[in-house]
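INFO batch 0412 | record 1 of 1 | parsing
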Amino acid sequence: MGDVKDNFYELQYVDAGLSGQIIEKEDLDFNEYIQFFPDSTFIKQRTYSDSTSIARGSYTSLEKEEYDYLKLTYDKNTYLIQSCGHTLEEYMRVLSKDEIFNGSYLPCDGPGYYYLRKRK
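INFO prediction complete | emitting tokens
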């Protein structure tokens, strides 16, 4: 599994779900970042032109159906949680050491979020 500890990921595009439409980051009205820390905590930040929202929580690594995932558990409820239903959890599939994908909304016809690791 790619090691995400102390890494910074930036949203690159949103997969709009059943329509198949891909919305590139340049066409979104926000930027979104996730930073993973060595102590198994994370921060997700979404920045609009006039405001910024920040969410925090912890993460664990797991393997499910032969794929590697990160399970993110948020400290409190926020609109930044990208999953179906009312839960404080979301799952990110680890595609490689530089790529993660959150398809937690896809089962309920929501968008998928693709992130790429940024070098600092």
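INFO post-check: The chain has no helices and nine strands.
INFO record closed
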